[in-house]
Amino acid sequence: MPEDPVLWSIAAIAALVTAAAAAWGAYVVRGSTAVPAACWAVVAAGALTAEMGGRAAGGLTDPATAAAVRLVVTALGVCPAMALLGAKRPQHGVWQFIVAALAVVIALPALSALLVRPGTLPDVGSLWRWFLLALLAVGWMNFIATRRAVAATLIVAGQGLLAREFAPFGVASGGAVADAAGAVAIAAGAMLAAAQSAVASRRSAGDGAWIDSPFLALRETLGAAWALRIAERFNAVAANRGWPCRLGFAGLEPPAAAGPWRAAADRTFRALARRFATADWLARHAAVDPRMAPTNDGR
Question: Quick check: 247 pLDDT over 50?
Fold first, then answer.
């Protein structure tokens, strides 16, 4: 009989919920370059579901095999966050091959143990362990300053629990309790993020939504790194043309006033945003100011 099958069953159900939330997320972000990250999340959650289901059913009793499978699951778990770091057209498609190669590199000790040295534990060196920790930290920092901060913290904390034996000061203790806690934390974070996305999609757009609304949606979808890059490029054009606004992390600063320059600002923002989202996605997030008067004046 497997040890603690109920807890591992709970972990499997939580991982399945995470996969469903990620699939919903892929639908919500359709039209943006975040879709590959959502697909990676579905794959990672599916792998975790299979692992926990196998443990609940009495499989993976060999410590070496169990450790190798866990390392593969851990490698897939960092892929969604890494996919977002390359989420800019036109290279976002090719970037997925880099993400896949990264997953293979992280899982290499497991593959080596299974194929070359059957029956031995994966030899995860100290550099490997710190590298994995750094990847988890990068994914967390990309969202810690956004409205997804709590969701990101739950997900990364859950990943840390599941990857505890591969941490720099890793411990293999905890068993099914730690596994269930990690899987439930990830599921809670995924459901919270999905709920926030659903609420945001129904939020009415106020004044200035012609830029603020899609910009903030991109910030919440792609994280702080790309939002700051978009703001940096927009502000360079704004300073050059003398527009009376700047694009900050929370939107236009100060709130946009009426003026003929708004047409040029709209075109500039849309040109930048199209590197990350389609015209349909921008239309869904109120990227057009219906009160903006047509003008040929670039200021």
Answer: yes
Same domain, 149 and 239: no
Beta bridge partners of 251: 248
β-partners of residue 246 are: 253
Model's pTM, two decimal places?
A: 0.88
Distance (Å, rounded) from C-alpha 243 to C-alpha 224?
24
How far apart CA 185 and CA 258 sit, in angstroms, is 46
The parent domain of residue 268 ranges over 212-284
191 touches 227 (CB < 8 A): no
**One-character DSSP codes across 18-37:** HHHHHHHHHHHTTTBTTHHH
User: Within this chain, do residues 12 and 143 fall inside the same structural domain, yes or no?
Assistant: yes
Strands 251-253 and 246-248: antiparallel
E strand segments, the chain: 246-248, 251-253
In this structure, what token pair is assigned to residue 171?
A: 């411990």
Per-residue DSSP letter, 164: G
Residues 222 and 191 in one domain: no
Q: How far apart are CA 226 and CA 258, in angstroms?
A: 28
- Same domain for 216 and 190: no
175 and 262: one domain? Answer: no
Query: Is 223 a residue whose pLDDT tops 80?
Result: yes
**In angstroms, rounded to a whole number, what is the distance separating the alpha carbons of residues 245 and 215?**
15
Q: Chain-centre distance of CA 86, in angstroms? A: 11
